[in-house]
Design goal:
The chain is α/β, with parallel strands linked by helices. 39% of the residues lie in helices and 12% in strands. Strands 2-8-7-6-5-3-4 form a 7-stranded mixed sheet, with helices on both faces. Helix 4 packs parallel to helix 10. The radius of gyration is 20 Å and the shape is globular.
Amino acid sequence: MDNIFSKKVEGIEISGIRKFFNKVAEYPGAISLTLGEPDFKIPKEVKEAMKNAIDEDKTTYTPNAGILELRTAISQYLLKDSIRYSENEICITVGGSEALLCAFNALINEGDKVLIPTVAYPAYESCAKLVGAEILTYKLKEDFSIDMDSIREIIKKEHPKLLVVSFPSNPTGAVMTKLQRDELYSIVRDEDILIISDEIYSAISFENHYSISQYDDIKDKVILVSGFSKMFSMTGIRIGYICASESILKEVVKVHQYNVSCAPSIGQYGALAGLKEALYHCEIIKNEFKIRRDYVYGRLKAMGLEVELPKGAFYILPSIRKFNLTSEEFCNKLLQNKKSCYCTRQCLWYWGRRIYKNLLLL
């Protein structure tokens, strides 16, 4: 055979962030800020619960959607943000990434249009390509908030099936205000469109968390994706979840079932312990990230760089336009400079790279 590979896979690039992560390893002493990963230890309660799960032989398959106790705990946890999903509207996944891929596979046909922000987490683009979707992008404002007029215009002209939003945002650190949430709600309510809301960083929001999922009357149009990687510093354990109306979730679980059968049982019990016993950890890391944010923001401003104050997550996106270098060129120079002991993650490989190529993600 001349070509054994799927054209869908050939159209996907290996993450540039991962490429740069590997490159940093070649420089002894460099501090890598490449991957979106908290540097805190996993809470002891989560660790003990996973050890106990092994000792108690809780290592068999779970229901496809995950153990009932964890789904119930997630349902109760979301209520603090006025988000209402029952345990039958929640599926535990292998991290937030699998939740995204399951949603795309369950909802998108080849040729359907998917609307993604410019600048965004790279997996949105990859998921869309894997299911054969046509990718559209919408603009962000100077403060990285959604340009609602841009979304309205694209929906009227292109009729996309799915809109993707992310708050707090990776990589901008932007959050959605109450007014913006209400405006987005009116768009989703009035237009023939579905929406995925990626809220994996919601536990690290420095302001009130507003979500499109807070409206019950559009539940049949909304898919909420989140997880425990960031809030409990358990990125390698791979436990996420997806919330949707029962009619949507039923189709999502079909995809999830044949992808992985179920999320790892041991990790599910760890996440359950996190929700029941270790929510204090979220406050600790949020407070620490806020201190770091304020320090880095102040230093960048003192250097004369243009930068927006992030309202959530643990990213900051200064402009390096004045250096007349792309983000990749700047990062390489920074890494190779012997005076520099750290490496930055560049935005070049994020959606919007043509527009935001002079922004640097720290």
